[in-house]
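Running low. Any example?
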Amino acid sequence: MIVDIAGGFDAMLVRDYMAGFHDPKAYAVSHIGWGLNELARWDYLASGAPTLGMDGRSFYGNVLFSTGPNTELGGTNDTACHMDLPMKGCSLYLDDELIVKAGQLIPEDMRAANR
């Protein structure tokens, strides 16, 4: 559960967006993942080209933190508020195993051949 959103303008935007749903379930964690797509570019949105945002969600080495509903994954959180927050240069542990370290995949079977 998200208990605080701190920061500048971006944090204010996220706080206002989530608060607009008037639903405490909006602050629940929906899912967490990491990017494996070597062809995806995290900066694709800056190009101005039409996109659904898949590059930002799947670029190699990202950590994707998502809030809101999880019913598609068998969960019970049914809020209308959903946010995908792809993060660059982060680290992620899964059950005490380091998966992503500062944007680099650690497990050999996930690591790209040229990295």
Summary: The beta strands are 29-34, 63-67, 83-87, 92-94, 97-101, 104-105.
